[in-house]
Design goal:
Layout lengths: L3 H24 L4 H12 L11 H21 L3 H32 L4 H10 L5 H10 L5 H28 L6 H35 L3 H21 L4 H13 L4 H25 L3 H6 L1 H25 L4 H10 L5 H12 L7 H33 L2 H19 L2 H4 L2 H39 L3 H38 L12 H27 L7 H42 L15 H4 L7 E4 L11 H4 L1 H5 L2 E7 L2 E4 L12 E5 L2 H12 L16
Antiparallel strand pairs: 1-4, 2-3, 2-4
Helix pairs in contact: 1-2, 1-11, 2-11, 3-6, 3-10, 3-11, 4-5, 4-7, 4-13, 4-21, 5-7, 5-15, 6-16, 7-8, 7-14, 7-15, 8-9, 8-10, 9-10, 13-14, 13-16, 14-16, 15-16, 17-20, 17-22, 19-20, 19-21, 20-21, 21-22
Length: 699
C-alpha cells in the first residue's frame, strides 16, 4: 500500500514537470505526447535529476489513464459502427499480426536468442498501442474513416494479444498447446464478449439515458466513470485486458445516444490521467540498458515501423480501402505499447525469457511513441506521393478495386456468404490446419523416426532425415495445391458476385475487370491463410522454406496480376471514350439537371468502371485553373477523373498536367465516399463527415 503523502508527492512531481514540458512542446509546435515522455525521463529513476517520482505509484495511476482513454475511444464507436468495420479490420489485423510475429521471431533468432525468447519478441511487436494512437489522433483531430479503420484494427489486435498470451503461457509452462485447448481459450473469449455485450445492451444504455435526463452533470460524470471502471474490473476478473473492458463500456454507453454529453464531461478527467500514463512510459526508459542492447533495439524499431507500415497498408488495401487511407493507417499503427509491456512481463514471470527482453520492449515502445505523431502528421503527403509514383495501370486498378469491393459488400448475402462460399472457406481452413499439423508433427517426431529408420533399414542418420523431409514435402504438396485451388474457386465466386457476367451470349464487357479482381481476391485469400501458417510453423522449420513457398506463390500471381492490370488500363481507356460520347450527346440538352443523368447508363454498359458521376466545374471552384496534379484529386480522395467534357471538345483519360477550366464537366469514378469527397473538393463545399480530413495537402 502506498501512503497518502507518497501518492500526493508523485502526482505533484509528475504533473508539475509535465506541465513545464507540455508548455515547451506547445511553443515548439510539437505533439504534447513527446513532452510527457520527456517529463517521464526527467522524473524517472535513471537520470541524476532530484525530481524522482515513485514508479509504482505512477504506474498505478497510469492504469487509470489507459482505462479512461479507452473509454473515451469507445464513446466514439457504437457497437453498430464497430461491427461495420469489424470484417475489414479483422482481415487487416490478422495479416499484420502474422507478418510481425514472423519478423520478430526471425530477428530474435538472428541475435542468437532462444526459440521462446524469439516467440515472445514476435508477439510483443505484433500489437500496436491503442493508448498512444488515441492520444495522437485527438491531438491532430483525425476523424472519419481512417479513425474507424485504425480503431477496428486495434480492437482485433487486442483480442489476438489475449490469445497469444494464453498460447505462450501454455508453451512456456511445458504443458504444450493442443487444438482443443486453443479452441477452449477462444471460446471463452467469445463467450465473455457476447455475454457482456448482450447483458450490457439491456442495462447500460437505459441507465445512461435515465441519468442524463436528470440534467445533473456531476451525476452523469460519476455514473459514466463508474460504469467504465466496473466493466474494466469485470474484464480483469475474467482474465482479460482492462483496456478491452473500458472500450466495450464506452461502446455500450454510446448506444444510449448520449455519448457527446458523456464525452464532454469525461474529457478533463481523462486528460489528467492520460498525461500520467505517458509520463510513466518515459520513466521506464533506461539509457544504460538502451546503450547495452542498442543493436537489437535499433533493428526491432526499424522492423516495427517498416513491417507495420507495409503489412497494415497491404491488409487495408486488400479489404477495399483507398491507397491514401491504407498508407495513413499503416503509418498510424507503426508502434508498440502497453500490451507489449504485458507480454514482455509475462515472459519474465514464466522465466521463459532473459531479463533483457523487457527493457528492449520498453525502449522500442518509447522510440516508436516518439515517431508516431510525426508519422501520422506526414502520412497525408506520403500517401499522396505514393499515389503519384504508382504506375498508371496500378493507379487505375487502385481506384476501381475499391468500387468492386463496395459492390461485393452490397451484393446479396446469399452470394457473398452462400452455401458454396461457406463450404469453400471450410475447405481452406481444413487444408491450412492439416498443413500446420503435418509440419509441426514432422518436426517433433523427426528425431524418433530418423532413429527408427536407421535401426530398421541401416540407413545413415543424415540420409534418413532427408527421407523424412522429402516425405513431408510430398505429403504437403496436396494441401498446398488445395489452398491455391480453393482460393481460386473462392475468388471466382466472389468476383462473380461483384461483377456478374452476361447470360445472354453477348460480349462480356466486365470480363477484364473480373479477371483482375479474381487474381487480387485469390492473392488476398492466399495471404490471409498462408501468412498465419508461416508464422505458426516457422519455429519448427529450419531456414526460410515456408516464406519462400509463399513468395513463390505470390510472385506467380503477381505476374498474372500485372498483365491483368495492364489490360484493365486499356479497357478503361476504351470505356472512357464511351463516357466522352455520352457527355457529348448530353451537352446540347436543355433539360434541368441534364449533367447529373448523363452517365446513368454507363455503369450498366461498362460495369467494371464503377458508377461514373458527372461534376460541373464552376468558376468559383478552388480547382479551376489548376492541373490535376496540383489538385491531387485521386491522392486526396481516392476518386479519379475518367473523362472531361469541355465545350464542343472532350478529353479521354486526362493526364496529370491537364488544366481544369470553368465549365468543364468531369466524369468521376470511385467508391461512393471517394466521389462525394471529390465533389466537395472540386466545389469547395465542406468534406463529408464520414471522410477523414485531408492532412498535409491543400487544393
Amino acid at each position: 500500500m502506498h501512503g497518502a503523502h507518497e501518492v500526493l508527492q508523485a502526482i505533484a512531481v509528475v504533473l508539475c514537470v509535465a506541465a513545464v514540458t507540455t508548455v515547451l512542446f506547445q511553443k515548439l509546435r510539437q505533439p504534447v505526447v513527446l513532452g510527457y515522455i520527456l517529463a517521464g525521463l526527467v522524473v524517472g529513476p535513471y537520470l541524476p535529476i532530484p525530481l524522482v517520482a515513485n514508479p509504482e505509484v505512477v504506474t498505478t495511476l497510469s492504469e487509470l489513464g489507459v482505462i479512461l482513454l479507452m473509454f473515451s475511444l469507445g464513446l466514439e464507436f457504437s457497437l453498430r459502427k464497430l461491427f461495420a468495420v469489424g470484417p475489414t479490420a479483422g482481415v487487416t489485423a490478422v495479416i499484420q499480426c502474422s507478418i510481425m510475429i514472423w519478423l520478430g521471431f526471425v530477428v530474435g533468432r538472428a541475435f542468437g536468442w532462444t526459440t521462446l525468447e524469439s516467440l515472445f519478441t514476435g508477439a510483443l511487436i505484433s500489437v500496436s498501442s491503442t493508448t498512444i494512437i488515441a492520444k495522437a489522433f485527438d491531438e491532430q483531430n483525425i476523424r472519419g474513416r481512417l479513425r474507424e479503420l485504425v480503431v477496428g484494427v486495434l480492437i482485433v489486435e487486442d483480442l489476438i494479444a489475449v490469445l497469444l498470451m494464453a498460447t505462450l503461457t501454455a508453451i512456456s509452462s511445458g504443458t504444450g498447446l493442443s487444438v482443443g485447448e486453443l479452441s477452449l481459450t477462444t471460446g471463452r473469449l467469445v463467450a465473455f464478449l457476447v455475454g457482456l455485450v448482450v447483458v450490457g445492451l439491456f442495462i447500460i444504455p437505459r441507465a445512461v439515458r435515465y441519468v442524463v435526463k436528470l440534467n445533473k452533470p456531476e451525476t452523469t460524470l460519476v455514473a459514466s466513470v463508474g460504469i467504465c471502471f466496473a466493466v474494466a474490473l469485470l474484464a480483469q476478473a475474467f482474465g482479460y485486458s482492462v483496456a478491452l473492458g473500458a472500450f466495450l463500456a464506452g461502446s455500450l454507453v454510446a448506444e444510449s445516444g448520449e455519448e457527446k454529453v458523456v464525452e464532454h464531461l469525461v474529457q478533463p478527467v481523462k486528460d489528467i490521467f492520460a498525461a500520467i500514463f505517458f509520463v510513466s512510459v518515459g520513466m521506464l526508459i533506461n539509457p544504460a540498458l538502451i546503450a547495452e542492447h542498442w543493436a537489437a533495439i535499433l533493428v526491432l524499431t526499424v522492423v516495427v515501423i517498416v513491417g507495420k507500415l507495409f503489412s497494415v497498408t497491404l491488409g487495408a488495401f486488400l479489404t477495399g480501402h483507398s491507397t491514401r487511407t491504407s498508407v495513413q493507417a499503416g503509418m498510424s499503427l507503426a508502434q508498440i505499447g502497453e500490451f507489449s509491456f504485458i507480454i514482455a512481463g509475462l515472459g519474465l514471470s514464466l522465466k521463459a525469457t532473459g531479463n533483457f527482453i523487457y527493457p528492449v520492449a520498453v525502449a522500442v515502445s518509447a522510440i516508436t511513441t516518439l515517431t508516431t505523431p510525426l508519422l501520422i502528421r506526414v502520412s497525408g503527403p506520403v500517401a499522396s506521393y505514393v499515389d503519384r509514383k504508382l504506375p498508371k495501370p496500378l493507379q487505375t486498378f487502385a481506384t476501381l478495386y475499391g468500387t468492386w469491393v463496395e459492390r461485393l459488400r452490397d451484393a446479396p448475402r446469399r452470394q457473398t456468404f452462400g452455401a458454396s462460399v461457406r463450404r469453400l472457406a471450410r475447405l481452406m481452413v481444413l487444408d491450412a490446419v492439416l498443413l500446420i499439423v503435418l509440419v509441426i508433427g514432422t518436426s517433433l517426431t523427426a528425431g524418433k523416426l530418423g532413429s527408427l529408420i536407421e535401426q530398421r533399414l541401416g540407413i545413415d542418420e543424415n540420409l534418413s532425415r532427408y527421407i523424412i523431409l522429402g516425405g513431408a514435402v510430398l505429403l504437403s504438396i496436396p494441401f498446398l495445391v488445395g489452398v491455391v485451388q480453393v482460393a481460386r474457386r473462392l475468388g471466382e465466386e466472389l468476383a462473380e458476385a461483384a461483377l456478374p457476367g452476361r447470360k445472354d451470349g453477348r460480349v462480356d464487357l466486365a470480363a477484364a475487370p473480373r479477371r483482375v479482381l479474381l487474381v487480387t481476391l485469390q492473392l488476398g485469400i492466399i495471404l490471409l491463410v498462408s501468412v498465419p501458417v508461416v508464422a505458426i510453423t516457422q519455429p519448427f522449420l529450419r531456414g526460410a522454406m515456408g516464406p519462400l513457398v509463399v513468395l513463390a506463390l505470390i510472385g506467380a500471381l503477381g505476374v498474372t496480376f500485372w498483365r491483368g492490370a495492364t489490360n484493365l488500363h486499356g479497357h478503361v481507356r476504351a470505356g472512357a471514350q464511351v463516357i466522352v460520347e455520352a457527355l457529348a450527346a448530353q451537352s446540347h440538352s436543355r433539360e434541368p439537371g441534364a449533367d447529373e443523368h448523363a452517365l446513368d447508363h454507363v455503369s450498366k454498359v461498362l460495369p467494371g468502371l464503377g458508377e461514373p458521376v458527372p461534376v460541373r466545374l464552376e468558376a468559383s471552384s478552388p480547382a479551376a485553373g489548376k492541373t490535376l496534379a496540383e489538385v491531387n484529386l485521386r491522392g486526396l480522395t481516392g476518386a479519379t477523373v475518367l473523362a472531361i467534357r469541355r465545350g464542343d471538345s472532350s478529353v479521354s483519360v486526362p493526364s496529370a498536367q491537364e488544366v481544369l477550366q470553368p465549365g468543364d464537366v468531369l466524369a468521376l469514378t470511385g467508391t461512393q465516399d471517394a466521389v462525394e469527397a471529390a465533389k466537395s473538393l472540386l466545389t469547395g463545399a465542406p468534406a463529408p463527415a464520414s471522410e477523414p480530413e485531408p492532412t498535409g495537402a491543400q487544393v
